[in-house]
Amino acid sequence: MSGILSFSSIVFPNWCTSSRRVVRMAAAQTTNAGLSLEAMAIKPPSHPTYDLKGIIKLALAEDAGNRGDVTCMATIPFDMEVEAYFLAKEDGIIAGIALAEMVFQEVDPSLKVEWSRKDGDYVRKGLQFGKVYGRAHSIVVAERIALNFMQRMSGIATLTKAMADAAHPAYILETRKTAPGLRLVDKWAVLIGGGKNHRLGLFDMVLIKDNHISIAGGISNAVRSVDQYLERENLQMEVEVETRTLEEVKEVLQYASQTKTSLTRIMLDNMVIPLPNGDVDVSMLKEAVELINGKFETEASGNVTLGTVHEIGQTGVTYISSGALTHSVTALDISLKIDTELALEVGRRTKRA
Questions:
Q1: 144 an active-site residue?
Q2: Which tens digits make up the pLDDT trace of 73-90?
Q3: Catalytic: which of 177, 196, 250, 286?
Q4: 320 partner at 20 to 30 Å CA-CA among 50, 156, 199, 344?
């Protein structure tokens, strides 16, 4: 992934202290502040228009409002320098280290950050896995934004890791059910957790879903329309079609056997049937995979949980997609503390460290 970089001198926003002049980096594609992509353990997905730095600036701006941090201006001497330590308050996969560093760089490029772990590493409750040192004002201002990103991303990565391990040999995918404005951040966390990315948006893959099929007058008509459109526009991209019954699977296979098609993947939606005892019946899904017989990639969707994903993965499907990876994330508890001894004491008292 690359971006076209331009440098300009701007007045730094008043996050906490008086304005000062700094050099800022902007980019035409997804870029980062103060980090090279090569230095990242796992790079973010490439997106043609997503402004990652803009998301960071928006998060800082909504926190600062029109005054900046009045509490730190009132309580912290302007030139005081401190060290603050990142503390894991529960077990999980850490994610967002690279993004947190970008936040600190955006607030104050003079801050120094060191890590004993990298994105994708497992951390245990009570572990100090990084530190930031420099001006106390800047650290306190950046703290919550950096932690918000890290906690959400780590929660996604932790669940993704568990799902990916259980799904093997199938691959686990997220969906577009991401937090508005955080599409790339959420999908980056999935990669860090060991999953793979589904389409980033509406632009990079054709996905023919039930509403498209209904409007087109049937599944064959919908696939045919896509084939004609791609040929007319001279476009090459992956094409997936959603099927909900074995009859639709057979219809797609019949169409593909008679017509040159751009189709690459067949989604097998809600072919995992929940049972009263909490188990699932995957026989319909398995039959669909056998019908397709390797002619196309396959993707199971619907009724995918940590408890069902292993059985689904044994049916022979290529991919398993789960919206829950991003739409129902539970954040991993992480803190940034200057007085770490007191933080650990309180954590032990509340069973959180």
A1: yes
A2: 999 988 899 999 999 999
A3: 177
A4: 50
